[in-house]
Write a structure and sequence with these properties.
Length: 289
Amino acid sequence: MKAIKNFFVIGFISFVLLGAIFLFQLTQFYDGKLHVVFCNVGQGDGIYIRSPKGLNIVIDGGPDDSILACLAKHMPFWDRKIQLVIMTHPHEDHLTGLIYILKNYKVLNFYSEKVQGKQAYQELTSLLEKKKIKSKQIFRGDRFILKDQVILATIWPKQNYQLAQEADLDANGQSIIELLTFGNFNVLLTGDGKLGEGEDFSSLGVDVLKVAHHGSKVNTNKNILEEINPKLAVITVGKNRFGHPSKETLEALKSLGIKTLRTDLDGDIEVVSDGKTWEIKSVNSTGVK
């Protein structure tokens, strides 16, 4: 009898705790705001976006399974569905984590560009085929308009440029660039793209810039930064042999007075907006990866 009573007590306590966790996460994750998380995945890109109505978007997955820890932290524990995945280009520091996402989450839509990659890319495409997920290409002019009026607009690549260069495609040159918009709030997500391909960025009203190619001096210069004029620049970077972020890029950001955060120094960087104002909600200094 005592054992049965203890069983019910333990069951009741567990039920209360589970309910408390559920209510806490419900208020935390369904706040009617747009959340953009630059995940600390080491030397690579992994970006998680949660729309005001709880739709999940991932842009790139980083070089390993680190993206899973970021998703676990910023998604409700019961939510295992990702509505949209975009792979900006098929380099392993952007695509490998997507393999782990496909193995652990239900992905509804997958988009990328035309360039094909090597071993990890082949594993990714095989997994997409196995799960019957069609990989589609996107070009400038394509737009995703979510039911809560969050918009993802493709800025690059141009379809005719891609076709013209088909004989000598460069993955970074073809890297997808997206403008994320919610009300008056704009985030420019650049992948490893080279900014300044004859584009006019001054009219975009960028609040947050994901600095291209981990802060490489080749992909971003002072003139472009001045034209974009973001309030916040985020560099997604980890330990690397390439010298990222470059001294030139850091000096340009500093000289223009642009607040700069780095995932290698600041951990996951979360920016939250209600479409009118925005704030940096969390910066976790968890050490270098």
